[in-house]
Fold this sequence. Notes:
The protein has one domain (5-87): Double Stranded RNA Binding Domain (2-Layer Sandwich). The chain has 3 helices and 5 strands. The protein has helices at 38-45, 53-59, 61-74; strands spanning 5-7, 13-15, 20-27, 30-37, 80-83. Strands 1, 2, 3, 4 and 5 form a 5-stranded mixed β-sheet that branches.
Amino acid sequence: MSSRLDIDQASLTDNDRQKQVEFTGEIDGEDRDFAVKYAVLKELSGDEPEDDALELFERFSDEIVDICAEAAVAKPNATLIVIDEGDLE
Length: 89
């Protein structure tokens, strides 16, 4: 069973230069930093994120939270957990 991840909504940032949505989340009482690549949002939605990356992130947040929680367990020492297409099942 994977751990529960709670996203700090105030930390959500669309980093269009890096083509990723960044945020801080709390998992098992510890704050972790995450970056979800636009390619993941495209895979989940079927649409290219342009000016609506945060909207797509919110729309698919349940799936993204599960993916991020699994990645956090798999990468316990990472300072920034980057989620890309390889993390999708």
